[in-house]
Specification:
367 residues; alpha+beta; conserved putative lor/sdh protein from methanococcus maripaludis s2 fold; Elongation Factor Tu (Ef-tu), domain 3; Helix Hairpins; six-stranded antiparallel β-barrel; five-stranded antiparallel β-sheet; 4 helices
Length: 367
């Protein structure tokens, strides 16, 4: 029994010694591996370049129809004809809707008959007055009766004309809001009509930019419905005063819209181009690492002869345009910077430049 206990203790001691030896060997191997210098990280490089950019003032706004209204009727009546389709284009003056005017037409015929009779009496009165058979007052009464009958005919004709609802201007119609046979009250909406070419964009800018603004100034507009297309226009109106509540100035620009892609009510991103180009320093967008504590880039430097290392440099970034970022402060033209491969870098790290390979940053940027 005692021999078995001693044997078990010896076996346990041997097992623990072996386990300790294996762990020690692993630690030695790991330390040796860490002691070896890491291979240089592969990066792609570029240079800080100097460009001429037209400064732009960013804002947001809304698209507004140059003319827009709800077509209504001035008189009550029963819908007898509908002469338009929802969403169609219409020319100014074209009849959209006809209200039943059969009773009005009959009344017009009666009024014309009355006018004809009044005209006969008036002409007879003229003849009698010339022959001095009728008094002047009787002649005046005959003339007044004829004039009143003529006015009643014109009034009835105007009522009939108002029962033919016409487009007040050329544009695109919305969705029809009435039906055949429906009785319409005065002012009841029939359909929306919008003139879309050209179209306005209304937006605001802070008051500090007022000296840089003028009518005729170029703008560029983008909308979410067509994210890859820029619509060009120009400022046509500037509000006469600054909004005291927001300290902003309201502007209106006009855009050509021949295809009708821009619609009233759309949210628009507006860039107002300043009058003159300015010199800016730029780097590719992939060369900048964005951080809540500040944006930075990696400068490429040669230390100890042939050894190439990177230096992390905090910069102030500006506008992004066509894949390039304006660097407002921190770099000089011609300096070499890391274009891609930033994710694995740290300050002072040795790198190997290879501009022929596509790195992970390139793939992510293209996606």
């Amino acid at each position: 029994m005692r021999k078995r206990l001693i044997l078990a203790i010896l076996l346990l001691a041997l097992f623990l010694a072996a386990l300790f030896g294996i762990k020690y060997w692993q630690n030695v191997q790991q330390a040796a591996q860490m002691a070896q210098p890491q291979p240089p990280a592969t990066i792609a490089s570029t240079e800080v370049r100097e460009e001429r950019w037209r400064p732009m003032l960013d804002s947001v706004g809304s698209l507004v129809a140059i003319n827009g209204t709800a077509v209504t009727t001035e008189v009550a009546g029963l819908v007898s004809e509908i002469q338009f389709e929802s969403g169609s284009r219409i020319e100014a003056g074209k009849v959209l809707l006809q209200l039943d005017d059969s009773i009005d037409q009959a009344a017009l015929e009666a009024l014309r008959a009355e006018r004809h009779l009044a005209e006969i009496k008036f002409k007879r009165a003229e003849d009698l007055l010339k022959r001095q058979v009728m008094s002047r007052s009787e002649y005046d009464e005959a003339r007044a009766s004829f004039d009143a009958a003529t006015a009643r005919v014109k009034q009835q004709e105007a009522t009939i004309r108002r029962k033919a609802i016409r487009a007040p201007f050329s544009g695109r119609l919305g969705i029809r809001q009435i039906n055949l046979g429906q009785f319409l009250e005065p002012g009841q909406p029939i359909v929306q009509l919008q003139a879309l070419d050209p179209i306005y964009v209304d937006y605001t800018l802070p008051e500090r930019y007022l000296p840089q603004l003028s009518t005729g100034q170029e703008i560029r507009v983008r909308v979410s419905a067509f994210p890859d297309k820029a619509f060009n226009g120009e400022i046509t109106s500037i509000e006469s005063g600054v909004d005291a509540g927001t300290r902003t100035i309201k502007l209106r620009a006009t855009l050509d819209n021949p295809e009708g892609q821009l619609q009233p009510g759309m949210f628009a991103k507006v860039k107002t181009l300043e009058a003159e180009d300015k010199t800016v320093l730029t780097v590719p967008r992939t060369a900048v690492s964005y951080n809540p504590y500040g944006d930075f880039i990696y400068l490429i430097k040669n230390n100890d002869g042939d050894k190439t290392v990177v230096e992390r440099l905090q910069v102030e970034t500006g506008e992004v345009r066509d894949g390039y970022v304006a660097i407002l402060e921190g770099v000089e033209a011609g300096q070499k910077v890391v274009r891609t491969g930033l994710v694995k870098l740290r300050d002072g790290m040795e790198v190997k430049i290879d501009n022929s390979v596509e790195l992970e940053d390139d793939k992510a940027d293209s996606e």
